[in-house]
Structure formats: C-alpha cells, structure tokens
Specification:
The chain contains six helices and twelve strands. It is α+β, with helices and mostly antiparallel strands.
C-alpha cells in the first residue's frame, strides 16, 4: 500500500535528483539547475476527498477537487507535500526531519501518518457543527495537522541485513559443522538466541489485517488465492520480530 509518491517538477524545489548518479539530495535553498531534476514528494491517505482538497490520480496527476465533483476510489487525497503551490493553498508541508530521512531511504513507499491535532475550523461561531464541543474530529471543516511516524530504519534494508547476519552464522548451510568454540562465543550465541526467538514469533504470527496482504491473482489459474505482503505487512512483521 503505497502512500509516498515522488514526482518530477519543472518548478523550484529543495529535493533534487542527480541526473548523472540518480541519487536524491537536499539543497539549502529552493533552486533549479541543469545537473539535476527537481522533485516533489506527495504523501496521500484514503481520507474522503472533499471540495477544495488536492488529490493524486492513478496516472500521477495532481488535481484539485472542484464543486459538484465526486472522487473515484483510486484517487488519493494529498495530506502532506513539498509542492509550494499546494502548500500556499493550505496543504501541510513536509518537515525537514522527514526530508533528511527520506534522502537516506529513497526506496521507502509507505509511512504511517497520524493526526497530531485538529487545528482550527474553517467556520466561525454557530455556523460550525463542532461549535462549543471538545471533539473537533466530528467537524468536516477543521484544519488537520499531521505527524509522520518515521520508521526506525528502512524495512527492506533491515531484512537484507538480517539475512546477511544469518548467512554469516551459517544458518543456510546444512553441512556446516558446529564448533565447540562457537558455543562460548557471546556474539554468535546472541545471534542464535535471536534466530530462535524470531522463529517462534513467525510460527505464532497471524496476518488478518487487509492492509498486510494483497491478492496477486484474479481468482483463476493455477494459484487462485495467491497473496503477497504489502509494505505495511512487512513493517508489521519486523515490529513483531524486534519485540523481546
């Protein structure tokens, strides 16, 4: 389930992509140049798209919801961005902390986003349905304030590092002889304990959240009920494996 989208732009941007090497980097000022391609980040959600909201289409176009227009299920509301035009129109800007993290983890396609606060309502006084009530979440006219939950580390790299460690330990080599000195090696003993713990976790793990799995077939053929892990499912498994 992807909610982080990076799109090129012909307008000035702090996030840049090198043409020569293809890596991302941040500039200290909003700029343009000939050796890089300017980029904008759009973080989307499945929230209801209302009049005046910006959204991303299935073919990666950024559009604004017009009056008397109904969004389709494949349209995603843009809730955070680096696009200066959208920021000027009320979309919340992505903070530097996430930008710096994203440059180091450019393959990230999903981040968890929480509503940090509800801000202020568009309307005033008795015109607003949430007037004189503590629960502004009931009002469809509030200005939400979002907080990105930055992953501790990039999920795919975490799995790669974990597999490299297991390979070094010899867990994939059935013919490897167990040496007596390895039993008293603290580092290797801790690795074995971690592998045993992770094996137990995986044995008892259940994936029942629809956000964790997605069907990869149309219900026909040799594998009619095939599923694969989503990015959120991978993160969930990693979180469970890291629990002591």
């Amino acid at each position: 389930m992807k909610n982080v989208h990076v799109l090129p732009t012909d307008k000035p941007s702090r996030l840049l992509k090198s043409i020569e090497k293809g890596n991302l980097f941040l500039s200290n000022r909003i700029t343009c140049g000939s050796k890089w391609i300017n980029q904008n980040i759009y973080i989307t959600s499945d929230e209801e798209i209302k009049e005046g909201d910006w959204f991303l289409t299935d073919d990666k176009r950024v559009e604004k919801c017009a009056p008397d227009w109904r969004a389709r299920e494949w349209h995603k509301k843009i809730i955070l961005t680096t696009d200066q035009d959208l920021i000027k129109d009320g979309v919340q800007s992505i903070d530097d902390e996430f930008l710096e993290w994203f440059v180091k983890n450019p393959s990230c396609e999903f981040v968890e986003v929480n509503i940090n606060s509800f801000g202020e309502c568009h309307m005033e006084g008795d015109d607003c349905s949430c007037y004189d009530t503590a629960d502004q979440s009931l009002c469809k006219l509030y200005y939400p304030n979002y907080k990105i939950i930055i992953p501790k580390e990039e999920p795919k790299q975490h799995l790669i590092d974990m597999m490299k460690g297991d390979e070094e330990l010899g867990l994939y080599d059935e013919s490897r002889e167990i040496k007596i000195e390895d039993i008293f090696n603290d580092e290797k003993r801790e690795k074995v304990k971690r592998v045993i713990h992770q094996h137990k976790v995986l044995q008892g793990l259940s994936l029942v959240n629809p956000a964790h799995l997605q069907m990869t077939s149309n219900g026909h053929g040799e594998f009619p009920d095939s599923y694969k892990l989503t990015e959120k499912g991978i993160q969930y498994i990693i979180e469970q494996l890291n629990k002591e």
